[in-house]
Amino acid sequence: GVVDQVLCLLPFEPPYMQAHGIRADFVGHPVVDEPQPSAAEVVGFRDRYGLGDAPTILALPGSRAAEVSRLADVFGAALAEVVRAAPETRVVVAAAAPVAEAVLAATSRWPGDPVVLDPRDMVLAEALRIKRAAFVAANAALAASGTVSPELAAAGTPMVIAYDMNWITRKIIQRKLLIDTVTLVNLVSETRTVPEFLGKDCQPAPIAAALRDLLVDPGRQGAALNVTMDRLGRGGEAPGIRAARAVISGLN
User: How does DSSP assign 153-167, residue by residue?
Assistant: First the structure.
């Protein structure tokens, strides 16, 4: 074969490679090596954006224009239901730079005077610090399906995942999908603790109900988040070091 060795970021990946005679080493996910904000930084974030002690939902509507255009109104309607039931709730939106303008336009129609974190106004290091503080400061997150769930797990922030796609893509995926969850936290923890609202189920009312449940009982995902981080390599050697050792071993 063309490939002699694969360095895997997820613990369930090696068996698939090994079944085809390829050496595969799980080296840990880079998220376990990301710095986490201090308690003072989290308090500073809340003070900077006037959040006080208010229950706060972090909204992550995606990093591509098509995602934002499909999800923004659904996210906004779901959050409107939450804010209607609990008016003290605040919303923070983490915008990716390529779609920041679209996010600002979409969230101007959202309830609760949302705080939009626009990384275009910041140097990279500051944008990352503020993003990490936002992740930890949030009591719950509403996120587009994707790679963000391990970041939320690292922050210890419970989440609701929602995603929709165009009709033809949805039909193709329905016929090809072999798993009953697409969220990495669910897959890695081998639970179905994180609620998902995908495709035709990506509707405001059930999303809002799931968010309200999390605000009432934020600890319900705690065990799954911890298991996920442990299985991704938290507490062990840094993934870069493990990768280097695996490569050296493979070359030998």
Answer: HHHT--EEEEE---H
DSSP class of residue 226 equals: H
Question: Model confidence over 172-187: pLDDT tens digits?
Answer: 777 666 677 889 999 9
> Residue 57 and residue 54: Cα distance in Å, rounded?
10
**Could you write out the DSSP letters of every residue in 93-135?**
EE--GGGHHHHHHHHTTSSS--EEE-GGGS-HHHHHHHHHHHH
Q: Give, for 60, the enclosing helix (H) or strand (E).
A: strand 56-60
- The C-alpha torsion from 216 through 55 and 58 to 72, rounded to 10°, is 80
Digit-coded pLDDT (tens) for 39-93:
999 999 999 999 999 999 999 999 999 999 999 999 999 999 999 999 999 999 9
CA distances from 96 to 115, 121, 124 (A): 14, 12, 12
| Tokens matching residue 112 | 């609760």
Whole-model pTM above 0.90? yes
Rounded to whole angstroms, the Cα distance separating 115 from 108 reads 10
